Amino acid sequence: RQFAFFQAPFVGNVVMSPPLSSPGRCRDSLSSEVGTPSTRYTSGEGTPARFTASSPSSAGSPIRRCVPTHSPVRRESGGSGSSFGTTPLNSPSRRYERSPVFQAEAPVRSGDSPHRTFRSDGRRAATRKTTRRPPTDPGECAIDIRLPKEKLPRPSGVCSAKSLYGEDGSRSAPRQFVWTTVDAVMLRPAKVAQMGIPLAAVCAPFADGIGRRLPVVDPGPAGPLRCPRCQSFANPFFQWSTSHTVRFVCNMCGHLLEAPESLLEDLDRSGRCSDSRPHPELACGSVDLVAADRFDVGRVSEGGPILCIVLEASSETTRSGFYDSVLSCFARLFTCAVQRRVCLITFDTVLHFYMPSKSGRFRDVVMQDIDDPFLPAAPDAFLVREGLETLFTELREASSSETCAAGGAALQAAVELASKTGGGDVLMFQNSNTFGRSPSFFKDLLNLCVQGGVAVSSVASVPADAVEADTQWLAWRTGGDILRLPGFESSRHDELEHHMGHWLERMRSSAYSCVFKLRCSKGLEITSLVAPWTVDEQGEQNAFELPRISADMSFTFQLQTWDDQSVRDRQLYVQAVILYTNCSGKRLLRIHTVPINIVFSIAKVYQSASVAPIVAVLVKQAAVLALSGKSPKDFLLDTCLEVLATYRAHCSRDNGHGALLISKTLALLPLYVLAARKLMYNLTSSKAPDMNESLMRLLRMPIHGILALLYPRIYVLPADSSDQFSLCPCLKEHVAEGPSQAYIITNGMGSWLWAAGEVDKRPGQLLIGKLRAALEPSASCMLDTLPNLNVAEASWAEKIHLGTLFVEDEGAMDMSYKDWVQYLQQEVLHWFEG
After folding, report:
1. Short-list 112, 121, 212, CA closest to 167
2. Residues 653, 657, 662, 663: is their CA dihedral positive or negative?
3. Where in the numbering of this chain does the Sec23/Sec24 trunk domain appear (predicted)?
4. Count of domains for the chain
5. Contact, 582 vs 423, CB < 8 A?
6. Which residues contact residue 405 at a Cβ distance below 8 angstroms, ignoring those fewer than 6 apart?
7. Do 315 and 368 fall within a single domain?
8. What is the chain's alpha carbon radius of gyration, rounded to the nearest angstrom?
C-alpha cells in the first residue's frame, strides 16, 4: 500500500479558493504589454520581432488564464469553529474541483520521496533518495541574447490607461484604483525573503476622473455596515454563515456579526440578495457611500470647494507681461459661469480684495497690515460665480509701480479664506521671493491647509535657482501642483493658458479634505508608505490626511506577510477607505477592496506577478533613495538580479547559458529596469530644484504615466486616420535611417519631432491630442508644441536626454538593451557559481 505524503483537507461541501488570480480577474500574460507576433514591430526582412519560448505551448501567443467569477462557497462541518462555515453574498451554491493549490504543493526536501512504500509486515521499505527539481513554468520565456536586437521583448501598442488596466468586471476593485504587485503570496517568511519581488499596493483612489462614476449608496441614519471588531466596511467578500442564519463573517478578521434588518428584507429564501442594485457595496469592489454627519464634526462643506487666485501685481510682473498673461488667461477660461466659486487677491506692498457690488461691478478692498494679515470682510463676500471675465479685463488696464513685499501675507490670507468656506484650491502666481516669514510659517500654514482642506499650487516666473524651496514643500504636501516658467515672456502666453486649462480640468475630478486609511486582513501588515509626505509628519503607516487627491495622484504601501495558521485556507484582503468631499460639497466614503490568494510555491507567485505595478514600485523606491542622496542605480540592479536568480533557481529546469530565463509575466522587467537606471541618472545629474521637483513628481505619478515615461513611443508620420498607429522600437537608427521623413517621439510628459527637413506639424499636433487623451488622467498636459530633436548634441545634458528617449541604444550613462540582457545573464550565472 502507498500513503500520500501530503493530503489536502476535505470537509463536506468545501470549495477551495481559485489559485493565482483574484476572482474574475484574467491573467493576460503581457497581451497588452509585450504583444503578439502579429502586432509586433517587423524588421526589414519581414521577421516578426518576438522572443523565444521554452515550451512549444507558449511559443505562439501569450498565455491567458481566467478563473471563475464566482467567489468560493464554504460550508461548516459542525460546531468546530472552522472558517469553512460561510457562504458568500450574491454567489450561488456550486461545487468546484479541488484546487490545484492543494495538489502536490508541499515541498520535498533532498532525500525525501513524495510516496513511502510499506511492506506487509508493517516496516518501511527502502526508498531511493532523490532531489526534486523545480517544475517547468508553463509561462516561462527565454530571452535569447544571440538573436538580433529587434527580436528582444518590448512594449507594443499605444501606451494608454485603458489598455494597461483593462476592463475588470469582477467583484474586486479595478486595477486603476488599487493594483498589487502580485495576486498570490506565500506565508512562509523564509521563501518570501528569497524572491526579490516587492509586495506592495499602488493606490490611486480617484483614478476614474470625470468620465466614470462609481455607484453611490446612501446607508441612511444608521450609517454604513462595518465589522465591529476591525472596523472594516462591508464588501463583496463578506460571507454568510450557514450555522447562523442572520449572521455573516467579516473577510478581514473572521468575526461573526449580525445582519441589519434593512439587509434581511432584501434577501431571498436562499439568503442571497435578489437584486444587487439596492446593495452595490455587496457586489462591487469599488463603491461610494454617503458619509454620516458623525464622521465630521464642525467641518464646513457648504457650497463645495472654492478657487482662490493670488496674483502678484508688482512693477516686475507688469514689465515682463506675466501679470497681463495671467489675467487674460483666466478671462478666456472663465467666459461663462464657472462650476465653483472664485476669489481674486492681488498684492504688491498691500493686499487687494475684490468684492462684488449690487451694480454688477467690483469694489477694491485694501488690507495694509501685512505683518498680521486678516480678512477685511466675511469670507463669502469675496466669492463670485459670474462676472469674472469683466473683472479680469478691467484689471488688465491697471498698472502698478510698486515693488512686491506682501507675498507671505497674501498666501496666508488666501488659505484662511479657503479654509473657512469649505476648502479648495489656492493658485499662487509670483514673480519674486517675498516669503520673509518666521521659520515655522510654512509648517503652521500646512496645519491650516490640512484642517481646512486647502491645496496650494504655485506658478513662478522667477529663475530656477531663486525659487523658494518652502513654496514647493507646501505644494507637494497639500496635493497641489508646481509650474516654473523662468524668464517669462509674453510669447509663452499659450503655454501658460494650456497648463491652467489642464489644472482646472483636474480640479473638477479631485477630492478634497481627504482622510485615507488602508486596512489589511490577517496574514498581511503594512511596513511603510511611499509618498511625497513622510511618515514622521503624519504619524501612522496606514493612515494620513491630505487636503486634495487628484485623479492622477498615486501612492504606494509596502506590505509583508506573516505566517498565520488560521488564514492558510483563505484569501488575504486589502481595503482602502477614503473620507472625502467631492466638487459638489458632498461628504462621501470611497471603498476599494482587493483580494490576494495564498499559494505554496514560488512558481505560482511569479505567475501571478504583474510587471506594471512592480516597475512603478521600484521607480518610486529609487526616487526616495535619490532624494536622500543615495545611489538608485545599484538598488535597481540588485533587485532585478535577485528576481532573475530566484526564478532560475526555483521555477526553471533549463540550465542553458544562452538565454535569460524569466516568467512571461515579467519579460519586460529587464528593459524597464534599464530605462529606470537611465532616467534616474538624468534626473540626479540636473540642478537641485529641477531634480527635487522631478523626483517628487515620480513619487505620486500613476502607473501608466511611469511606464510611458520609461519607454517612450515613436510614431511614424503622417499618422493613419484610424487608431492603429505605426510604431517602431526606441532605437535611434530606426528613426535616423527609417523610410519616413518625420517621427513623433513622446514619453507622456513631452513630445518631440524628428524630421529630415521642413514638414507640416499639424498632423503631429493632432496625433498628440489623441495620445494625450489616451494617457488621462495625467499629471502633465503634454503641449502641442513639437520642438525639433534631430540636432547636434551640443552639450552633455542633451546626450543624457537622448539616452532617456532612445532607451535601447547605448547612451552616455548606460549600456544598450542587448548588452544589458547579456550582462544580466552573466551576473545570474555568477550568482549561482558564487
Report:
1. 212
2. negative
3. 320-432
4. 5
5. no
6. 348, 349, 370, 434
7. yes
8. 29
